[in-house]
């Protein structure tokens, strides 16, 4: 999805703008619904379903759903792998900026190696070093939250675009 520009306006510039504006509104609606539902689950269960990087995940999931970074394998795999890496480094090396940098760099390389790159997940090791959670952080919010966003995205895109997401190759 691209944003409207003067260059994209032609003979049917108004219809192009309406199409792009509709896509932008759908992206915003998707992000709102997903984050509101996950936030509601957090409030109702008194569990930390929300991870700071999930906002950026919604940018990709609803704004650029056909990007390779927006596919379920990347969203779930990227979040779980980077949180696991962050937790391992925190517990093996202790807190500090050098172990945090090792965790983030290692997480990046592991996502690339496993073909589960999800850029928002790259912030998970940094979040982990800032918050210093226990091992349960891997399950909730990381895994359960990422799976929830993917399920919400799947339902959302099934309704909005009649089953066009995820990419069959992704």
Describe the structure.
Residues 21-165 form the HPP transmembrane region domain. Keywords: Membrane, Transmembrane, Transmembrane helix. The chain crosses the membrane at residues 20-42, 49-69, 138-159. This protein is mainly alpha-helical and 170 residues long. It has one domain. Helices cover 66% and strands 0% of the residues. The protein is built from 6 helices and no strands. Helix 2 (54-63) runs parallel beside helix 6. The longest helix is centred in the N-terminal third of the chain and has 33 residues, at 13-45. Residues 1-10 have low confidence and may be disordered.
Query: What are the segments in which pLDDT stays under 50 over at least 5 consecutive residues?
Result: 1-10
Oligomer: single chain
The pLDDT mean sits at 91
In one word, what is the shape?
globular
Transmembrane segments: 20-42, 49-69, 138-159
InterPro entries: HPP, TM_HPP
Protein name: HPP transmembrane region domain-containing protein
Domain HPP transmembrane region: 21-165
């Amino acid at each position: 999805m691209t944003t409207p520009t003067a260059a994209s306006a032609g003979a049917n510039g108004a219809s192009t703008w309406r199409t792009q504006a509709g896509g932008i509104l759908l992206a915003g609606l998707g992000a709102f619904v997903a984050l509101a539902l996950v936030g509601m689950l957090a409030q109702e269960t008194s569990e930390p379903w929300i991870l700071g990087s999930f906002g950026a995940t919604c940018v990709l999931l609803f704004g650029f759903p056909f990007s390779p970074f927006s596919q379920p394998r990347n969203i779930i795999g990227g979040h779980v792998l980077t949180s696991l890496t962050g937790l391992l480094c925190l517990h093996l090396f202790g807190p500090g900026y050098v172990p945090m940098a090792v965790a983030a760099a290692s997480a990046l390389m592991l996502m690339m190696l496993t073909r589960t790159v999800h850029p928002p997940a790259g912030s998970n090791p940094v979040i982990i070093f800032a918050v210093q959670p226990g091992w349960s952080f891997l399950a909730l919010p990381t895994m359960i939250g990422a799976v929830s966003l993917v399920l919400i995205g799947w339902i959302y895109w099934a309704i909005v675009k009649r089953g066009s997401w995820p990419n069959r190759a992704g």
